[in-house]
Write a structure and sequence with these properties.
Largest sheet: 8 strands, mixed, barrel
Distance between the termini: 29 Å
Strand order of the largest sheet: 1-2-3-4-5-6-7-8
Strand content: 5-15%
Number of strands: 9
Length: 399
Amino acid sequence: MSGQRDTDAFAIALQPIHDAADRHVADRLLYRHHGEALEDPVAATARALATAIYELDEGKRLGTRELIIDLPGEWLERTDLLPSPARQVIIGLPRDLPPTPELLTTLEQLRERGYRLLVPASGLQGDGRELAPLADLIRLRHPDELDAGQLDAHRQRGARLLADDIRDAERLDRFRSLDCHYFDGRYLAEPAFYAARPRGRHGNRAAQLRLVNELYREDADLQRLFELLIQMPHLHVAILRRATSSLFGQDSRQTDLKRAMQVIGLNELRRLVMTLSLASEMPSSKLRVRLALIRAFMCRNLATPFRNIDPEDAFTTGLFSMMGPLLDEAQDALLEELPLTAAVSRALSGREGHLGALLTLCEEHERQVADGGATASADQLQQCYLDALDQTDALMSRL
Protein backbone atom coordinates (compact mmCIF):
# COMPACT_ATOMS: atom_id res chain seq x y z
CA MET A 1 0.00 0.00 0.00
CA SER A 2 2.83 2.40 0.73
CA GLY A 3 4.12 1.97 -2.81
CA GLN A 4 0.74 3.01 -4.16
CA ARG A 5 0.75 6.13 -2.01
CA ASP A 6 4.20 7.06 -3.32
CA THR A 7 3.04 6.58 -6.89
CA ASP A 8 0.04 8.81 -6.31
CA ALA A 9 2.05 11.57 -4.56
CA PHE A 10 2.27 13.76 -7.62
CA ALA A 11 1.53 17.47 -7.64
CA ILE A 12 1.49 20.32 -10.08
CA ALA A 13 1.63 24.06 -9.56
CA LEU A 14 0.61 26.97 -11.73
CA GLN A 15 3.05 29.84 -11.26
CA PRO A 16 1.42 33.17 -12.18
CA ILE A 17 3.16 35.16 -14.91
CA HIS A 18 2.57 38.90 -15.06
CA ASP A 19 3.06 41.47 -17.78
CA ALA A 20 4.65 44.90 -17.44
CA ALA A 21 1.34 46.28 -16.14
CA ASP A 22 1.22 43.60 -13.40
CA ARG A 23 -1.68 41.78 -15.04
CA HIS A 24 -1.92 37.99 -14.64
CA VAL A 25 -1.61 36.99 -18.31
CA ALA A 26 -0.07 33.52 -18.22
CA ASP A 27 0.80 30.54 -15.99
CA ARG A 28 3.90 28.41 -15.87
CA LEU A 29 3.29 24.71 -15.27
CA LEU A 30 5.48 23.23 -12.55
CA TYR A 31 5.32 19.63 -11.40
CA ARG A 32 7.03 17.20 -9.11
CA HIS A 33 6.78 13.56 -8.03
CA HIS A 34 7.32 12.42 -4.45
CA GLY A 35 8.54 8.97 -3.47
CA GLU A 36 11.27 6.56 -4.43
CA ALA A 37 9.99 5.49 -7.87
CA LEU A 38 10.57 8.49 -10.13
CA GLU A 39 8.72 8.62 -13.43
CA ASP A 40 10.54 9.15 -16.70
CA PRO A 41 10.42 12.72 -18.08
CA VAL A 42 7.90 11.92 -20.83
CA ALA A 43 5.46 10.22 -18.45
CA ALA A 44 5.83 12.90 -15.76
CA THR A 45 5.20 15.70 -18.25
CA ALA A 46 2.21 13.85 -19.69
CA ARG A 47 0.69 13.43 -16.26
CA ALA A 48 1.26 17.08 -15.40
CA LEU A 49 -0.40 18.19 -18.63
CA ALA A 50 -3.31 15.81 -18.08
CA THR A 51 -3.86 17.27 -14.62
CA ALA A 52 -3.52 20.90 -15.70
CA ILE A 53 -5.58 20.67 -18.87
CA TYR A 54 -8.23 18.04 -18.09
CA GLU A 55 -8.58 17.61 -14.31
CA LEU A 56 -8.65 21.05 -12.71
CA ASP A 57 -12.03 22.32 -11.62
CA GLU A 58 -13.59 24.97 -13.83
CA GLY A 59 -12.73 27.78 -11.43
CA LYS A 60 -9.03 26.82 -11.41
CA ARG A 61 -8.53 26.40 -15.15
CA LEU A 62 -6.46 28.71 -17.30
CA GLY A 63 -9.33 30.43 -19.05
CA THR A 64 -7.87 32.63 -21.78
CA ARG A 65 -4.44 32.87 -20.17
CA GLU A 66 -1.37 31.39 -21.83
CA LEU A 67 0.35 28.28 -20.46
CA ILE A 68 4.14 28.03 -20.34
CA ILE A 69 5.38 24.42 -20.29
CA ASP A 70 9.04 23.58 -19.70
CA LEU A 71 9.54 20.41 -21.74
CA PRO A 72 12.35 17.86 -21.32
CA GLY A 73 14.29 17.02 -24.46
CA GLU A 74 12.67 13.58 -24.63
CA TRP A 75 9.24 15.17 -24.95
CA LEU A 76 10.14 16.80 -28.26
CA GLU A 77 9.97 13.31 -29.75
CA ARG A 78 6.31 13.10 -28.65
CA THR A 79 4.91 16.34 -30.02
CA ASP A 80 1.64 14.60 -30.93
CA LEU A 81 0.66 14.84 -27.25
CA LEU A 82 0.92 18.61 -26.94
CA PRO A 83 -2.29 20.28 -25.75
CA SER A 84 -4.34 22.72 -27.75
CA PRO A 85 -5.11 25.39 -28.67
CA ALA A 86 -1.56 25.95 -29.84
CA ARG A 87 -1.91 29.72 -29.70
CA GLN A 88 -2.31 29.46 -25.92
CA VAL A 89 0.77 27.29 -25.31
CA ILE A 90 4.38 28.46 -24.96
CA ILE A 91 6.97 25.66 -24.99
CA GLY A 92 10.02 26.17 -22.80
CA LEU A 93 13.15 24.45 -24.09
CA PRO A 94 15.76 23.02 -21.70
CA ARG A 95 19.27 24.41 -21.37
CA ASP A 96 22.10 22.77 -23.32
CA LEU A 97 19.74 21.31 -25.92
CA PRO A 98 21.92 20.32 -28.92
CA PRO A 99 20.52 22.14 -32.01
CA THR A 100 20.61 19.13 -34.33
CA PRO A 101 19.02 19.39 -37.80
CA GLU A 102 16.24 17.06 -36.62
CA LEU A 103 15.51 19.27 -33.60
CA LEU A 104 15.47 22.44 -35.67
CA THR A 105 13.02 20.84 -38.09
CA THR A 106 10.76 19.76 -35.22
CA LEU A 107 10.81 23.23 -33.69
CA GLU A 108 10.01 24.86 -37.03
CA GLN A 109 7.03 22.54 -37.42
CA LEU A 110 5.80 23.39 -33.93
CA ARG A 111 5.92 27.09 -34.72
CA GLU A 112 4.06 26.50 -37.97
CA ARG A 113 1.34 24.78 -35.94
CA GLY A 114 1.03 27.93 -33.81
CA TYR A 115 3.13 27.05 -30.75
CA ARG A 116 5.63 29.61 -29.46
CA LEU A 117 9.09 28.73 -28.14
CA LEU A 118 10.74 29.99 -24.97
CA VAL A 119 14.55 29.64 -25.02
CA PRO A 120 16.84 30.37 -22.03
CA ALA A 121 19.35 33.11 -22.74
CA SER A 122 22.18 30.75 -21.80
CA GLY A 123 20.98 28.37 -24.51
CA LEU A 124 21.61 30.95 -27.23
CA GLN A 125 25.38 30.90 -26.81
CA GLY A 126 27.81 28.96 -29.05
CA ASP A 127 26.03 26.37 -31.19
CA GLY A 128 22.81 27.46 -29.54
CA ARG A 129 22.81 30.59 -31.70
CA GLU A 130 21.04 28.48 -34.33
CA LEU A 131 17.99 28.53 -32.03
CA ALA A 132 17.80 32.33 -32.03
CA PRO A 133 15.61 32.69 -35.16
CA LEU A 134 13.11 30.27 -33.62
CA ALA A 135 12.92 31.93 -30.18
CA ASP A 136 9.65 33.79 -29.65
CA LEU A 137 10.56 34.48 -26.02
CA ILE A 138 13.89 34.55 -24.20
CA ARG A 139 14.19 33.72 -20.51
CA LEU A 140 16.53 35.98 -18.55
CA ARG A 141 17.67 34.70 -15.16
CA HIS A 142 19.78 37.82 -14.55
CA PRO A 143 19.48 41.37 -15.95
CA ASP A 144 23.08 41.19 -17.26
CA GLU A 145 22.78 37.75 -18.87
CA LEU A 146 22.75 39.37 -22.36
CA ASP A 147 24.51 42.59 -23.34
CA ALA A 148 22.76 45.56 -24.93
CA GLY A 149 23.74 44.56 -28.46
CA GLN A 150 22.38 41.05 -28.07
CA LEU A 151 19.14 42.33 -26.58
CA ASP A 152 18.64 44.77 -29.44
CA ALA A 153 19.24 42.03 -32.01
CA HIS A 154 16.65 39.78 -30.42
CA ARG A 155 14.12 42.60 -30.13
CA GLN A 156 14.55 43.46 -33.82
CA ARG A 157 13.62 39.86 -34.64
CA GLY A 158 10.42 40.31 -32.64
CA ALA A 159 11.45 38.20 -29.64
CA ARG A 160 10.07 39.13 -26.23
CA LEU A 161 11.83 38.87 -22.87
CA LEU A 162 10.72 36.90 -19.82
CA ALA A 163 12.27 37.94 -16.50
CA ASP A 164 12.92 34.98 -14.21
CA ASP A 165 14.32 34.48 -10.71
CA ILE A 166 13.05 37.83 -9.44
CA ARG A 167 14.36 37.95 -5.89
CA ASP A 168 13.73 41.51 -4.77
CA ALA A 169 12.43 44.93 -5.83
CA GLU A 170 15.86 46.06 -7.07
CA ARG A 171 16.19 43.18 -9.50
CA LEU A 172 12.57 43.68 -10.59
CA ASP A 173 13.32 47.32 -11.42
CA ARG A 174 16.37 46.30 -13.45
CA PHE A 175 14.31 43.81 -15.43
CA ARG A 176 11.68 46.51 -16.05
CA SER A 177 14.37 48.78 -17.46
CA LEU A 178 15.04 46.11 -20.10
CA ASP A 179 11.41 46.32 -21.31
CA CYS A 180 10.66 42.72 -20.39
CA HIS A 181 7.23 41.58 -21.50
CA TYR A 182 6.72 38.78 -18.93
CA PHE A 183 7.71 38.57 -15.27
CA ASP A 184 8.01 35.19 -13.55
CA GLY A 185 8.92 34.79 -9.91
CA ARG A 186 7.62 34.10 -6.42
CA TYR A 187 8.51 37.65 -5.48
CA LEU A 188 5.41 38.68 -7.44
CA ALA A 189 3.00 35.85 -6.55
CA GLU A 190 3.07 32.42 -4.96
CA PRO A 191 2.25 29.42 -7.17
CA ALA A 192 -1.02 27.57 -6.67
CA PHE A 193 -0.44 23.86 -5.97
CA TYR A 194 -2.82 21.08 -6.95
CA ALA A 195 -2.56 17.38 -6.18
CA ALA A 196 -3.09 15.10 -9.15
CA ARG A 197 -5.91 12.60 -8.85
CA PRO A 198 -4.75 9.11 -7.88
CA ARG A 199 -3.75 6.95 -10.81
CA GLY A 200 -5.02 3.52 -11.54
CA ARG A 201 -7.88 1.67 -13.19
CA HIS A 202 -11.39 2.21 -11.90
CA GLY A 203 -12.61 -1.38 -11.64
CA ASN A 204 -10.84 -4.47 -12.87
CA ARG A 205 -9.80 -5.17 -16.44
CA ALA A 206 -12.32 -7.98 -16.93
CA ALA A 207 -15.22 -5.77 -15.84
CA GLN A 208 -14.14 -3.03 -18.22
CA LEU A 209 -14.03 -5.44 -21.14
CA ARG A 210 -17.50 -6.75 -20.29
CA LEU A 211 -18.82 -3.22 -20.19
CA VAL A 212 -17.28 -2.25 -23.52
CA ASN A 213 -18.44 -5.51 -25.03
CA GLU A 214 -22.03 -4.84 -23.99
CA LEU A 215 -21.92 -1.19 -25.04
CA TYR A 216 -21.02 -2.07 -28.61
CA ARG A 217 -23.49 -4.87 -29.19
CA GLU A 218 -26.16 -4.08 -31.78
CA ASP A 219 -28.77 -5.30 -29.28
CA ALA A 220 -27.19 -3.72 -26.21
CA ASP A 221 -29.08 -4.74 -23.09
CA LEU A 222 -29.93 -1.70 -20.95
CA GLN A 223 -30.44 -3.84 -17.86
CA ARG A 224 -27.05 -5.54 -18.31
CA LEU A 225 -25.36 -2.16 -18.78
CA PHE A 226 -27.10 -0.88 -15.67
CA GLU A 227 -25.87 -3.85 -13.65
CA LEU A 228 -22.29 -3.23 -14.75
CA LEU A 229 -22.32 0.56 -14.35
CA ILE A 230 -23.98 0.56 -10.94
CA GLN A 231 -20.82 -1.15 -9.60
CA MET A 232 -18.53 1.59 -10.93
CA PRO A 233 -19.07 4.73 -8.82
CA HIS A 234 -16.99 7.09 -10.97
CA LEU A 235 -18.95 6.17 -14.11
CA HIS A 236 -22.26 6.17 -12.24
CA VAL A 237 -21.73 9.74 -11.04
CA ALA A 238 -20.45 10.92 -14.42
CA ILE A 239 -23.57 9.60 -16.19
CA LEU A 240 -25.87 11.30 -13.70
CA ARG A 241 -24.02 14.60 -14.17
CA ARG A 242 -24.10 14.27 -17.92
CA ALA A 243 -27.84 13.58 -17.97
CA THR A 244 -28.56 16.74 -15.98
CA SER A 245 -26.36 18.99 -18.12
CA SER A 246 -27.89 21.78 -20.18
CA LEU A 247 -27.05 19.82 -23.33
CA PHE A 248 -30.00 17.47 -22.66
CA GLY A 249 -32.41 20.13 -21.41
CA GLN A 250 -33.14 18.45 -18.09
CA ASP A 251 -34.54 20.86 -15.51
CA SER A 252 -34.42 18.55 -12.49
CA ARG A 253 -31.45 16.67 -11.08
CA GLN A 254 -31.40 13.06 -12.29
CA THR A 255 -30.72 10.50 -9.56
CA ASP A 256 -31.93 7.34 -11.33
CA LEU A 257 -29.02 5.77 -13.22
CA LYS A 258 -31.24 3.80 -15.58
CA ARG A 259 -33.27 6.90 -16.41
CA ALA A 260 -30.07 8.92 -16.88
CA MET A 261 -28.80 6.31 -19.35
CA GLN A 262 -32.06 6.67 -21.34
CA VAL A 263 -31.78 10.46 -21.32
CA ILE A 264 -28.29 10.60 -22.80
CA GLY A 265 -28.79 7.67 -25.17
CA LEU A 266 -26.55 4.79 -26.17
CA ASN A 267 -24.16 6.73 -28.43
CA GLU A 268 -23.47 9.40 -25.82
CA LEU A 269 -23.14 6.69 -23.18
CA ARG A 270 -20.49 4.95 -25.31
CA ARG A 271 -18.45 8.14 -25.67
CA LEU A 272 -18.64 9.03 -22.00
CA VAL A 273 -17.76 5.56 -20.70
CA MET A 274 -14.90 5.05 -23.16
CA THR A 275 -13.40 8.48 -22.48
CA LEU A 276 -13.42 8.12 -18.70
CA SER A 277 -12.28 4.50 -18.74
CA LEU A 278 -9.37 5.10 -21.09
CA ALA A 279 -8.33 8.28 -19.31
CA SER A 280 -7.61 6.30 -16.14
CA GLU A 281 -5.36 3.71 -17.73
CA MET A 282 -1.93 5.39 -17.75
CA PRO A 283 -0.25 8.78 -17.14
CA SER A 284 -0.46 10.01 -20.73
CA SER A 285 -3.85 8.49 -21.52
CA LYS A 286 -5.93 11.65 -21.15
CA LEU A 287 -3.83 13.16 -23.90
CA ARG A 288 -3.88 10.02 -26.00
CA VAL A 289 -7.62 9.59 -25.73
CA ARG A 290 -8.01 13.16 -26.95
CA LEU A 291 -6.22 12.20 -30.16
CA ALA A 292 -8.51 9.18 -30.54
CA LEU A 293 -11.60 11.32 -30.02
CA ILE A 294 -10.43 13.88 -32.57
CA ARG A 295 -10.05 11.09 -35.12
CA ALA A 296 -13.45 9.63 -34.19
CA PHE A 297 -15.26 12.95 -34.51
CA MET A 298 -13.49 13.69 -37.79
CA CYS A 299 -14.62 10.34 -39.21
CA ARG A 300 -18.16 11.09 -38.10
CA ASN A 301 -18.06 14.59 -39.58
CA LEU A 302 -16.83 13.25 -42.92
CA ALA A 303 -19.61 10.65 -42.97
CA THR A 304 -22.45 13.07 -42.28
CA PRO A 305 -23.18 14.09 -45.93
CA PHE A 306 -23.40 10.47 -47.10
CA ARG A 307 -26.73 8.72 -46.59
CA ASN A 308 -25.19 5.27 -47.05
CA ILE A 309 -22.70 5.74 -44.16
CA ASP A 310 -23.84 5.64 -40.54
CA PRO A 311 -22.09 8.55 -38.74
CA GLU A 312 -21.99 6.57 -35.49
CA ASP A 313 -20.30 3.65 -37.26
CA ALA A 314 -17.76 6.16 -38.56
CA PHE A 315 -17.21 7.48 -35.02
CA THR A 316 -16.68 3.95 -33.71
CA THR A 317 -14.23 3.21 -36.52
CA GLY A 318 -12.12 6.25 -35.72
CA LEU A 319 -12.15 5.61 -31.96
CA PHE A 320 -11.31 1.92 -32.15
CA SER A 321 -8.53 2.47 -34.69
CA MET A 322 -6.44 3.66 -31.71
CA MET A 323 -7.82 1.31 -29.06
CA GLY A 324 -4.82 -1.05 -28.98
CA PRO A 325 -2.24 1.70 -28.32
CA LEU A 326 -4.57 3.36 -25.82
CA LEU A 327 -4.81 0.19 -23.74
CA ASP A 328 -1.24 -0.95 -24.50
CA GLU A 329 -2.53 -4.17 -26.04
CA ALA A 330 -2.27 -5.87 -29.43
CA GLN A 331 -4.86 -4.18 -31.65
CA ASP A 332 -6.00 -7.32 -33.51
CA ALA A 333 -6.42 -9.41 -30.35
CA LEU A 334 -8.36 -6.65 -28.63
CA LEU A 335 -10.76 -6.11 -31.54
CA GLU A 336 -11.54 -9.82 -31.61
CA GLU A 337 -12.97 -9.47 -28.09
CA LEU A 338 -15.44 -6.75 -29.10
CA PRO A 339 -18.73 -7.22 -30.98
CA LEU A 340 -18.12 -4.68 -33.72
CA THR A 341 -20.15 -4.73 -36.93
CA ALA A 342 -18.69 -6.41 -40.00
CA ALA A 343 -18.26 -3.07 -41.76
CA VAL A 344 -16.36 -1.56 -38.83
CA SER A 345 -14.19 -4.67 -38.46
CA ARG A 346 -13.25 -4.63 -42.16
CA ALA A 347 -12.41 -0.94 -41.96
CA LEU A 348 -10.15 -1.48 -38.94
CA SER A 349 -8.39 -4.60 -40.17
CA GLY A 350 -7.91 -3.77 -43.84
CA ARG A 351 -9.14 -0.18 -44.36
CA GLU A 352 -11.91 -1.68 -46.52
CA GLY A 353 -15.23 -0.18 -47.57
CA HIS A 354 -16.58 3.32 -47.08
CA LEU A 355 -15.57 3.39 -43.43
CA GLY A 356 -12.05 2.26 -44.29
CA ALA A 357 -11.78 5.06 -46.85
CA LEU A 358 -12.85 7.64 -44.27
CA LEU A 359 -10.36 6.30 -41.74
CA THR A 360 -7.54 6.41 -44.30
CA LEU A 361 -8.47 9.99 -45.16
CA CYS A 362 -8.34 10.99 -41.48
CA GLU A 363 -4.97 9.31 -40.92
CA GLU A 364 -3.46 11.03 -43.96
CA HIS A 365 -4.73 14.40 -42.77
CA GLU A 366 -3.30 13.79 -39.28
CA ARG A 367 0.12 13.15 -40.82
CA GLN A 368 -0.13 16.40 -42.77
CA VAL A 369 -0.99 18.29 -39.59
CA ALA A 370 1.92 16.64 -37.73
CA ASP A 371 4.29 17.56 -40.57
CA GLY A 372 3.08 21.14 -40.61
CA GLY A 373 1.64 20.77 -44.11
CA ALA A 374 -2.02 21.38 -43.26
CA THR A 375 -3.12 24.98 -43.05
CA ALA A 376 -6.37 26.55 -41.97
CA SER A 377 -8.51 26.67 -45.10
CA ALA A 378 -12.12 26.44 -46.17
CA ASP A 379 -11.87 22.99 -47.76
CA GLN A 380 -14.18 20.30 -46.39
CA LEU A 381 -11.44 18.04 -45.05
CA GLN A 382 -9.78 20.73 -42.98
CA GLN A 383 -13.14 22.01 -41.75
CA CYS A 384 -14.09 18.52 -40.58
CA TYR A 385 -10.78 18.36 -38.68
CA LEU A 386 -11.27 21.78 -37.07
CA ASP A 387 -14.82 20.83 -36.08
CA ALA A 388 -13.47 17.60 -34.57
CA LEU A 389 -11.04 19.61 -32.43
CA ASP A 390 -13.90 21.75 -31.11
CA GLN A 391 -16.15 18.74 -30.49
CA THR A 392 -13.39 16.90 -28.62
CA ASP A 393 -12.53 19.88 -26.44
CA ALA A 394 -16.23 20.43 -25.68
CA LEU A 395 -16.71 16.79 -24.70
CA MET A 396 -13.59 16.49 -22.54
CA SER A 397 -14.20 19.80 -20.78
CA ARG A 398 -17.59 18.53 -19.60
CA LEU A 399 -16.39 15.19 -18.23
